[in-house]
Amino acid sequence: MTINEQITQLRDEINYHLYRYHVLDAPVISDAEYDALYRELVELEQQRPELITPDSPTQRAGAEPLGAFEKVTHPAPILSLANAFNAADLRAWHARIGRLLPDPEMNLDYVVEPKLDGLTVVLTYRDGRFTQGATRGNGQIGENITQNLRTIRGLPQRIPVDPASDLTPPPYLVVRGEAFFPLDKFEAFNLARMATGAAAYMNPRNAAAGSLRQLDSTITAARPLTLFVYDFIAWEGGDIPPTQWERLARLRGYGFPVSPDNQQCPDLGSVAAAYNAWIEKRNQINYEIDGMVVKINDRPLADSLGFVGKDPRGAIAMKFPAQEKTTKLLDVQVNVGRTGILAPTAVLEPVEIGGVIVRNATLHNYDEIARKDIRIGDTVVVKRAGDVIPYIIGPVAALRDGSERAVERPSHCPACGEPAIQIEGEVAIACDNPACPEQLVRRVEYFVSRAALDVDNFGAQTGALLIEQGLVHDIADIYTLNRDDLLALEGFKEKKADNLLAGIAASKQQPADRVLTALGIRYVGSVVAGLLLNALGSIDALAAANQEDLEAIEGIGPGTAVHILTWFANEKNRAILEKLRAAGLNFAVAERETAVAAQPLARLTFVITGTLPTMSRDKAKALVEQHGGKVTGAVSKKTSYLLAGEKAGGKLAKAQSLGVPVIDEAAFKTMINF
Ligand code: IVH
Fold first, then answer.
1. Cα–ligand 1 centroid distance for 191 (angstroms)
2. Could you tell me which CATH class the domain 83-319 is placed in?
3. What is the pLDDT of residues 209-232, one digit of tens each?
């Protein structure tokens, strides 16, 4: 195989794994294996830079900064939608279009989709390759943001993404979607951003817009943007199905990310029911929506109804009641975080927002309060979105009566009384006392939390109680607790004590990356912990690393490196590490891989094709994975075996041409002693 062919194959393979991970949420290889493929591609491309193409996965890291965005003309107007606010508006819409239908009595069916509160993007594919991405602009002319869109991991560079797919897209295809900032990433992203002194983004939508408007696409690449695609704008030479529901299925078939929350409704009554159900559910999903879009399923019919201004008649946006409310800011309390940061928290006059009573909201930091000029006693606008903590958008200054008071920066820690310090180079104020009991409560809380060691049966109050009773002086002390200690605590009976001890004991099996996360080093959350251990192999190797070693790791910047070094340089932290080691926690990643390596199909890659005599392909796939192997969609020189049944086609021919061994079901069963 030539280097060019090798590069092409690797790119397809990597793009396929990005799709499995980011679109299907069902990866078939480990992060470490993915990294190995990626590194191999980087090395080959370094040898032959002239072979780098814009659709290479390596280009998802961003390209040369632009001077300005070019303008692009859309192939068809990028329309918007008329709004409805309740069931009566919906019926009025239906009555209006009824008069235009060929038969006013005809039964219509609908597709109801979440109305994503992001940024419209228009994506062009030529011969299945992503060639251009644009903003909506004024609907006729948008801005060319191709470089930025390429960095979105779930955006297909080539369609169909799955090499096993038999779909062929039209040679020219333009689709429409919405790029957005996932809610679970928004809060943390904003906090990290403010830690560098930058202003917080007001909401996820602004964060998405700000991220896509960067002239330097490496900045976009570092943001966790994603997208859902929902429409065809233009195509030439090829067929697109006539109903909206089939169109969504087709987009998914090509490998585009499509919202899993779209639904089919056979009549207007079920549309109204779906809308009502979504008013309740809107806060349970990981992206912000401001309504539901109702579309007539029969697209040629819908299109034949024409427009009113820029709004097509065949669809309507049913907006949700506002998630922003005004209320009084009663007080600002100081919250001590696990790293000692003193964070201002708003105490509000309770207000109902989207079905939940909100009493507290985050105020981020004292600079932010000063910047927005928020005062105690102010009427403030509070916003709630998803599971993120409600936040204050700003004061309604016009409603002031002069009794409002400025928010004071704390001079001392409210828990231990030690003086508060200003963290150098950051906006945060912190309690610098390592023995502060409140910080310890927060550290233990984090140590046992789902994000870290995920200790079962460790209740919310347990940490504070254990610390108060003098049983826990640092996070490692939870491993020295015994039954008698616990039974002496208020509210602890035998069953509760045993459950807690079982949860603590089980947490010793957690992998090293969780142990590292649980240490609570600043900026070392689960993602960074994974990067560090992938590169270094163990917590001990990390403890021995210097600034240069750390900065050489992809994804680790100088600031994070300094925090890691400072943490490991501290005697007390070293002592905690030794206690955790003595308790038997995992410090190295190797242990997990050795367990996998002992399995019969370890390190083997299978492709499954055709009809097997006694089991489905899904069953065979599950068996491969249970025995430590992996299954991929396409045959390559790296495939260990092709498991082939009746009617095996192209994959069989490919395996034979590459010399990949072909086995049948019987041989496969022998391999796994089935
Ligand atoms: S359909 C003619 N579907 O909402 C078709 N729009 O207020 C018009 N939006 O500008 C768009 N999710 O940016 C459609 N599933 C969805 C949508 C959606 C979000 C946005 C879109 C549009 C705005 C209309």
1. 30
2. alpha beta
3. 999 999 999 889 989 999 999 999
List the one residue out of 10, 52, 96 whose CA is nearest residue 316.
96
Binding site membership of 116 for ligand 1 (Cβ less than 6 Å) = yes
pLDDT tens digit sequence for 499-537: 999 999 999 999 999 999 999 998 888 878 988 998 899
Sorted by sequence, the CB contacts under 8 Å of residue 547 that are 6+ apart come out as 558, 561, 562, 565
Residues 6+ apart with CB under 8 A from 373: 395, 397
Pull the structure tokens for residue 365.
């930091």
Where do the domains of the chain lie?
A: 3-59, 83-319, 324-406, 434-509, 512-594, 596-671
- Inter-CA distances, 419 with 370, 485, 599, Å: 21, 34, 56
Tell me the angle at which helices 268-281 and 87-98 cross, rounded to the nearest 10 degrees: 150
Atom of ligand 1 nearest to the CA of 117: 19
Among 80, 112, 205, 258, which residue has the most ligand 1 atoms within 8 Å of its CB, making it the best to mutate? Answer: 80
Verify whether residue 572 is a known catalytic residue.
Answer: no
Ligand 1 atom with the shortest distance to the CA of 115: 12
Burial of 601 (0-12, 13-18, 19+ CB in 10 A): buried
Report, as ranges of residue numbers, the positions in the chain whose pLDDT lies below 50.
592, 594
- Which residue's C-alpha comes closest to atom 23 of ligand 1? 80
> For the chain, first and last CA: distance in Å?
36
- pLDDT at position 596 is 54
CA 313 to ligand 1 centroid distance, Å: 13
Dihedral angle computed from the Cα positions of residues 215, 20, 132 and 67, in that order, rounded to the nearest 10 degrees: 10
- Chain segment 41-68, per-residue pLDDT in tens: 999 999 999 998 888 898 888 778 888 8
pLDDT of residue 592: 44
CATH of segment(s) 434-509: 1.10.150.20
Q: What is the pLDDT of residue 4?
A: 92
Select from 1.20.140.10, 2.60.40.1930, 1.10.287.610, 1.10.287.130 the CATH code of 3-59.
Answer: 1.10.287.610
Q: Is 315 in the pocket of ligand 1 (CB under 6 A)?
A: yes
Choose the residue to mutate in 293, 296, 304, 318 for probing ligand 1, maximizing ligand atoms within 8 Å of C-beta. 293
The residue whose C-alpha atom lies closest to atom 9 belonging to ligand 1 is 115
**For ligand 1, is residue 312 a contact (CB within 6 Å)?**
yes
Q: How far apart are CA 79 and CA 77, in angstroms?
A: 6
C-alpha 236/C-alpha 169 separation (Å) is 10
Q: Could you identify the atom of ligand 1 that is nearest to the CA of residue 79? A: 2
H helix count then E strand count, the chain: 25, 26
Residue from 115, 295, 383, 621 carrying the catalytic annotation: 115
Which fold does the domain 596-671 belong to in CATH? Rossmann fold (3.40.50)
**Segment 396-443, tens digit of pLDDT:** 988 999 999 999 999 999 999 999 998 877 788 999 887 899 999 999
> Strand, helix or coil at 184?
helix
Going by alpha carbons, the residue nearest to atom 7 of ligand 1 is 81
* pLDDT at residue 185 in the model: 87
* Distance (Å, whole) CA 545 – CA 376: 47
Domains 3-59 and 596-671 share a fold: no
